[in-house]
């Protein structure tokens, strides 16, 4: 609901609004006035005898506007007659362009008074906060002639040029009858086509003192226009004193909304199609003629009551707007171009868009974000990503916009080898004791041993993973395909030169990229450990030297370049040996193996070396016969 202030304030307010609406918007947010948004409700064309400034030429014009007026709004006025030359205004009287500069918005319905005098313009409202108006442009002298004259409100977008004006004419008023022929003097004017049929007024009686005195109960803009246009609603006063006394009693009036609205369904199409435009008129007692536009062409609907639906084919995004509304079956019906509840609606015709996502994979337990939806809002199902469960899960995106189709992707969660998942392998056959060996920690081996990893125990692990050892010098050895022998044993052969190296071996267990059961496109899901491989060697027995023959009952000495070993005899019935010194004593004739053993201080076996000793019998000698 919009209120109109007192008549005095309303006249000034109306003029301000009219000026603002008619004027081109020069500042963002300025009000745009259409035809029918401004009316004159009072004219005192001879206020000189009542002027507080003793200005004998002073006129008072009271105006009402139907829109709020914001700062920067301009409006133009002229008292030149129209059609003094064909399609031209006269150019011997006045043209005035005003601008409202106040910071307070002038509320629709406020009455504004313009005080005009010869050679000067006094713009004054009964509301002091609305008095901030300035003259933007003036040509000639705008003052109403006694005994009859006209006044037009003009849009300020176009300039006045010697009577040529091709802008919008918003409202016309005459204190005498409009003429239907080219006016012969400055007190007469034709009606400009823009104000026909409704946006003008001339009272039945010619006088310099005219005021609207009709019904002032709340009404819509359309009803107010009808009231003000009706000559029976105007009063005639004899002088300025009577006029001003009545003007002082002019109370605020209320403007009701027209309650003519426009809606559309659907508002979004995924392809060209049909929409339903609904025109709603709250006043069911009246039939209306409606004009609406699709931005390129105007369309008319006649005798519309209540709610009316028009089905329309649209091929592109289109904005439908109400242009005007007026009562049906009335040749003098006055269309309104504003004050409509909902004036425009837009139908969007969108091109169907297909969203696609690539399937992906991720390691167990890692964080994964939903893929980019290209700014399209919607919901995911499931609503969150689970990376704690092995296998493949389908995630579906449902856009809020019906023009976009659902899209899905598969996310495969692949395992990451757990340290506890590394199988413990027994190497007791080649190690001292029965200590299990794992693919981590420290492993000691003798240089001549074999390192066997039974495949049967690795099947569960190798179903999803590869095992790779990296030697201390960086050589990679894929145990799953390079070192499998005919018996299905993964074997590291210690004596293979350049293969087994003492030091730290990296053990990497990782997911196979080409595993068809669980495809994986990212970096390897892996666990890396290490083996400290210590390769021992058997002790050196050195070089054994000494005689290899001894007689029964006699002794020889054996020695080695490596001390600390133990000497032993294969058969002490033939020869004995001192275990510490290596002294060999023959016992009986024959051959015997004398061994020298150096004990091992690691997991490698003791080292032994032997030498064959021959024990010779003592020779038997005959008695010596001495010949005579």
* Structural Rg: 58 Å
Which sheet architecture does the biggest sheet show?
A: 6 strands, antiparallel
Count of distinct structural domains: 5
Shape: rod-shaped
Helix content: under 10%
Strand content: 35-45%
Return the structural class: mainly beta
Q: How many beta-strand elements?
A: 47
Taking the alpha carbons of the first and last residues, their distance comes to: 180 Å
Q: What are the segments in which pLDDT stays under 50 over at least 5 consecutive residues?
A: 1-28, 420-438, 453-457, 482-498
Tally of alpha and pi helices: 4
How do the strands line up in the largest sheet? 9-8-3-2-14-16
Mean pLDDT: 77
Domain BIG2: 566-600
InterPro entries: Big_2, Invasin/intimin_cell_adhesion
Organism: Profundicola chukchiensis
Pfam families: Big_2
Brief overview:
This protein has 628 residues and is mainly β.
Task: Give the helix/strand layout.
Elements lengths: L1 E2 L3 H16 L15 E7 L14 E7 L8 E5 L3 E4 L2 E2 L5 E6 L10 E7 L2 E4 L9 E7 L10 E5 L14 E6 L25 E2 L7 E4 L6 E2 H9 L4 E3 L3 H8 L6 E3 L3 E6 L2 E2 L3 E9 L6 E6 L4 E7 L2 E8 L3 E10 L16 E6 L10 E4 L14 E4 L9 E9 L7 E8 L10 E2 L9 E2 L3 E6 L3 E5 L4 H4 L2 E6 L5 E3 L10 E5 L9 E9 L14 E11 L7 E2 L3 E3 L3 E3 L1 E2 L5 E4 L5 E3 L5 E4 L3 E9 L8 E10 L12
Parallel strand pairs: 12-13, 15-17, 19-25, 26-29, 32-38, 40-47
Antiparallel strand pairs: 1-17, 2-3, 2-14, 3-8, 4-7, 4-11, 5-6, 7-10, 8-9, 11-12, 14-16, 18-20, 20-23, 21-22, 21-24, 24-25, 27-28, 28-29, 30-31, 33-36, 34-35, 34-37, 37-38, 39-42, 41-45, 43-46, 44-45, 46-47
């Amino acid at each position: 609901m919009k209120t109109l202030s007192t008549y005095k304030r309303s006249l000034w307010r109306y003029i301000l609004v009219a000026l603002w609406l008619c004027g081109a918007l020069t500042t963002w947010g300025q009000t745009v006035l259409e035809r029918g948004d401004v009316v004159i409700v009072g004219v005192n064309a001879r206020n000189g005898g009542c002027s507080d400034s003793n200005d004998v030429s002073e006129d008072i014009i009271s105006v009402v506007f139907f829109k709020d007026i914001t700062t920067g709004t301009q409006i133009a006025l002229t008292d030149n007659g129209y059609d003094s030359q064909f399609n031209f205004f006269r150019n011997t009287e006045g043209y005035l362009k005003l601008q409202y500069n106040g910071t307070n918005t002038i509320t629709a319905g406020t009455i504004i008074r313009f005080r005009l005098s010869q050679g000067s313009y006094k713009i004054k409202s009964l509301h002091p906060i609305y008095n901030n108006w300035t003259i933007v442009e003036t040509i000639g002298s705008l003052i109403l002639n006694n005994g009859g004259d006209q006044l037009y409100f003009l849009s300020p977008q176009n300039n006045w040029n010697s009577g040529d004006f091709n802008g919008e004419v918003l409202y016309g008023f005459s204190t005498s009858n409009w003429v239907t022929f080219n006016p012969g003097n400055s007190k007469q004017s034709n009606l400009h086509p823009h104000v026909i049929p409704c946006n003008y007024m001339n009272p039945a009686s010619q006088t310099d003192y005219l005021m609207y005195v009709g019904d002032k109960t709340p009404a819509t803009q359309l009803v107010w226009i009808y009231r003000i246009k009706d000559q029976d609603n105007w009063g005639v006063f004899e002088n300025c004193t009577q006029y001003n006394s009545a003007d002082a009693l002019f109370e605020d009036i209320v403007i009701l909304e027209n309650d003519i609205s426009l809606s559309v369904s659907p508002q979004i199409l995924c392809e060209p199609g049909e929409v339903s435009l609904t025109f709603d008129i709250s006043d069911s007692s009246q039939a209306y003629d409606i004009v609406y536009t699709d931005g390129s062409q105007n369309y008319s609907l006649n005798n519309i009551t209540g709610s009316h639906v028009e089905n329309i084919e649209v091929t592109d995004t289109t904005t439908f707007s109400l242009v005007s509304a007026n009562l049906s079956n009335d040749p003098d019906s006055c269309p309104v171009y504003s004050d409509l509840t909902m004036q425009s609606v837009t139908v969007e015709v969108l091109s169907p868009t297909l969203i696609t996502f690539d399937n992906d994979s991720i390691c167990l337990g890692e964080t994964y974000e939903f893929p980019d939806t290209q700014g399209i809002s919607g919901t995911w199902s499931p609503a969150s990503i689970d990376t704690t469960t092995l296998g493949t899960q389908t995630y579906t995106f449902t856009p809020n916009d019906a023009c976009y189709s659902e899209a899905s992707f598969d996310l495969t969660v692949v395992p990451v080898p757990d340290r506890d998942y590394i199988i413990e392998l027994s190497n007791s056959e080649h190690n001292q004791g029965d200590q299990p060996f794992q693919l981590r920690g420290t492993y000691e081996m003798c240089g001549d041993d074999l390192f066997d990893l039974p495949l049967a125990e690795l099947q569960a692990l190798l179903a999803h993973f590869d095992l790779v050892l990296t030697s201390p010098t960086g050589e990679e050895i894929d145990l799953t395909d390079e070192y499998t022998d005919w018996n299905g044993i993964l074997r590291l052969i210690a004596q293979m030169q350049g293969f087994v190296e003492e030091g730290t071996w990296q053990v990497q267990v990782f997911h196979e990229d080409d595993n068809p059961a669980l495809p994986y496109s990212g970096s390897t899901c892996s666990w890396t450990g290490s083996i400290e491989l210590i390769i021992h060697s058997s002790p050196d027995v050195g070089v054994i030297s000494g005689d290899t023959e001894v007689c029964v009952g006699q002794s020889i000495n054996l020695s080695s370049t490596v001390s600390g070993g133990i000497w032993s005899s294969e058969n002490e019935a033939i020869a004995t040996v001192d275990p510490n010194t290596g002294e060999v004593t023959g016992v009986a004739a024959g051959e015997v193996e004398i061994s020298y053993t150096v004990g091992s201080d690691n997991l490698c076996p003791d080292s032994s070396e032997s030498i064959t000793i021959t024990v010779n019998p003592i020779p038997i000698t005959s008695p010596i016969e001495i010949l005579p």
